[in-house]
Amino acid sequence: MSQLVLSQFPEQLKGFGGGYGHIRFRPGRPLPSATVTKIVRAWVAQNGARAGRNRRLRSG
Fold first, then answer.
1. Is the pLDDT of residue 28 over 70?
2. pLDDT of residue 60
3. Do 47 and 13 form a contact (C-beta atoms < 8 A)?
4. pLDDT averaged over the chain?
5. Rounded-to-integer distance, Cα 39 and Cα 20, Å
6. Counting Cβ atoms within 10 Å, is residue 28 exposed (0-12), middle (13-18) or buried (19+)?
7. What does pTM read for this prediction?
8. Residues 26, 23: Cα–Cα separation, whole Å
9. Is the per-residue pLDDT at 36 higher than 80?
């Protein structure tokens, strides 16, 4: 997970420690499913943009 994606959700991740590119949570206090969905969608979008950029670089 990139820090860029995680930095888009400071309020939702408040109280969940972590470092560069990861989130720490305990089984007794999981991340809300809506937050997980938002983070995954942002991560997929970032990877899709990166993949498109890489394709253009290879073909050009």
1. yes
2. 56
3. no
4. 81
5. 15
6. exposed
7. 0.69
8. 10
9. yes
**What mean pLDDT do residues 20-30 have?**
85
pLDDT tens digits, residue range 45-60? 988 876 666 555 555 5
Question: How many other C-beta atoms lie within 10 A of the C-beta of residue 5?
Answer: 19
- Residue reference for tokens 């809300």: 32
Which tokens go with 36?
């997980």
Q: Which two three-digit tokens encode residue 60?
A: 């050009």
Tokens at 27, concatenated: 């089984």
Alpha helices in 1-60 (DSSP H): 3-6, 33-59
In whole angstroms, how far apart are CA 34 and each of 15, 28, 37?
16, 17, 5
SS3 category, 26: strand
Q: Which amino acid is at 32?
A: P
Rounded distance, CA 20 to CA 4, Å?
10
